[in-house]
Amino acid sequence: MASAAYDDDPFSRILKPPQNETPGQQRVRMEKQQEAQRISRQIDESILESKKAFEKRKKAIKILLLGQAESGKSTTLKNFQLTFAPNYFRDERRIWKMVIQLNLIRSVARLLQVLQHEWDATTTSPPVSPGGPLSRKPSRPLSLGPLTDDHRRTQMRLSPLLAMEAELTRKLLPEMQTLNKPLQEICVRAGSGWKGILNRVASPDPPMARPRSKGGRPGSSDGRNRADPTAVLVACRDDIVGLWWDEAVQFVLHKHGVRLEEMPGFFLNDVERIATFDYEPTDDDILRARVRTLGVEEHRLVMQTGAPNFGTEWYVYDVGGSRIQRHKWVPYFDDVQAIIFLAPMVFNQTLEEDSTVNRLEDTMHLWKDICSNSLLANATLVLFLNKIDILRSTLAAGVKLNRYVPSYGDAPNDVENVTRFFKDKFRAYHKRHSPKYRPFFVHETSVIDNRTTSAIIIGVREGILHAHLKSMSIL
Ligand SMILES: Nc1nc2c(ncn2[C@@H]2O[C@H](COP(=O)(O)OP(=O)(O)OP(=O)(O)O)[C@@H](O)[C@H]2O)c(=O)[nH]1
Ligand SMILES: [Mg+2]
User: Fold this and answer.
1) Are 318 and 381 part of one and the same domain?
2) Closest by Cα among 229, 446, 256 to 345
3) Would 420 be classed as within a structural domain?
4) Ligand 1 within 6 A of 386 CB?
5) Which run of H or of E encompasses 455?
6) Most-buried pick from 313, 384, 387, 420 (CB within 10 A)?
7) Which positions in this protein are listed as binding GTP (predicted)?
8) Alpha-carbon 332 to chain mean position
9) Does residue 124 share a domain with residue 78?
């Protein structure tokens, strides 16, 4: 009977013990069978786990941060992290310290570049001397412009900083060597483990490198240890401070229309605090640090509130905003509940990737595309009119909006009127181009200010949760 059953069932035939099996062979066969069963159970369990994770993820709320490059997407993500996990950056300060140092070095490099342009341009111009701390000493000018040979000497003393920038960028971003463009920003490819790389490069300062006194020059005879950005920055601190606050230098920057304070990752006002051996970035510093995003990064956040089993898990997707990055956004469109769109209120600048396109014009086009996209028809759109602080300082500096946007006409050139003007424009596009009705949510933000941004984010979270529950007919 047993033999007939084995012959009928193909599985049983496979498992059928061979004829004349010895007890030893039987033991080995049984052990193999048990091992096979254990592996099969393991596979079943992992399939179940993945299914559970998939279901959980389907229930999770997904937010996509969109907007052009430098609009403030990654900074908004940092605000989410700080709002829902106040100690988020505690263990990352060393990494951010290096980013901030590189941001600072980049500003110095840009400053020196402008001075060089001035030297190149003024060799035949009549001298202009607005004076200033560096130009008070009598010295023979090398050029006929406002800059003296004191400025030249400072420029030469700062050259180790530039060498350091090139060296660090090479270490951090080997792929950028091929681009070979001067003054490039630090950028990170999503999922490249960039924090790990930075952590390895940002080795702690050796104890022997600490100065005996403030501003000492340790590490080598002139203190400019080529491998340590902290030591080089400390050694260059007084020169950077002197140059940045020098009246002649400010005059040249103004003359060339360069507002370094509007550059991403601007830390020149904080050199005395940052260029020290004991510097540790604050959360505010980290919010202002600039790292360009390439690709799409997924960040999981777990929140304390929400309906039981619902609304506690959020995924925030941070994307690269430059034009060549935007096609990578689309695969995320059909699975998100909400978009936070960052529209920087910078009306007098052009895109870095295309200097013929005004930033605000690009933002308006992008907003129109997002509003009209049918894959996003059910998503809640939240608009952040960001960089309000920069708008304020631009208007205060006397820059007229109607020079860039003639339709603004003769309305007052102040923050209140300008903001209202843009709000109305964005609202009109939203109404006209959305495939079906949806409410218009807008906030004026300056996402480098965590206190006000946190309050906005908490409100946005409630709004998104509410809309999501409603769409699932839970409310
Ligand atoms: N002053 C000011 N600076 C801001 C504001 N929002 C962002 N920034 C700064 O602008 C720079 C660019 O911000 P990011 O958040 O990196 O921009 P992004 O949209 O992620 O840019 P990509 O990654 O290139 O797409 C950073 O140095 C920020 O600190 C703001 O409201 N005011
Ligand atoms: Mg970014």
Assistant:
1) yes
2) 446
3) yes
4) yes
5) helix 450-471
6) 384
7) 287-293, 386-389
8) 19
9) no
Q: Do 367 and 223 belong together in one domain?
A: no
Domain span including residue 465: 60-89+293-471
Last residue of a domain, one of 252, 280, 308: 280
Tell the residue nearest (CA) to atom 6 of ligand 1.
Answer: 72
Whether 148 and 168 map to the same domain: the answer is yes
- Which one-letter amino acid corresponds to residue 299? H
- In the structure, how many helices (H) and strands (E) does the chain have? 17, 8
Cβ of 135 less than 6 Å from ligand 1: no
What is the residue with the minimal CA distance to atom 12 of ligand 1? 70
Residue 339 is inside which H or E element, if any?
strand 338-344
Task: Please state the domain count of the chain.
Answer: 2
206: DSSP letter: P
Residue 63: phi and psi, rounded to 5, are -120, 135
* DSSP strand pairing (187-189 vs 292-294): parallel
Whether residue 209 is found in the same domain as residue 304 = no
Which residue CA neighbors atom 8 of ligand 1 most closely? 72
CA of 4 to the centre of ligand 2 (A): 69
Name every residue whose Cβ is closer than 8 Å to that of residue 333 and which is 6 or more positions away in sequence: 64, 373, 375, 376, 379
ipTM for the predicted complex comes to 0.99
Residue nearest atom 9 of ligand 1, based on CA coordinates: 264
Considering 280, 311, 328, which residue would you say is the last residue of a domain? 280
**Is 180 labelled as part of a ligand binding site?**
no
Q: Do residue 133 and residue 144 come from a single domain? A: yes
Strands 296-302 and 338-344: unpaired
Are residues 120 and 206 part of one domain?
Answer: yes
Domain containing residue 306: CATH number: 3.40.50.300
Q: What is the pLDDT along the chain (475 residues), one digit of tens a residue?
A: 445 555 667 767 777 778 888 889 889 989 999 999 999 999 999 988 888 877 777 778 899 999 999 999 999 999 999 998 888 898 889 889 988 999 999 999 999 999 999 998 876 544 444 444 444 444 444 456 788 999 999 999 998 888 888 777 776 665 554 444 555 566 655 555 667 767 776 655 444 444 444 444 434 444 445 567 899 999 999 999 999 999 999 999 999 989 999 889 999 999 999 999 999 999 999 999 998 888 899 998 887 654 555 567 889 999 999 999 999 999 999 889 999 999 999 999 999 889 999 999 999 999 999 999 999 999 999 999 999 999 999 999 899 999 999 999 999 999 999 999 999 999 999 999 999 999 999 999 999 999 999 999 999 988 888 887 777 766 5
> Nearest ligand, CA of residue 325?
1
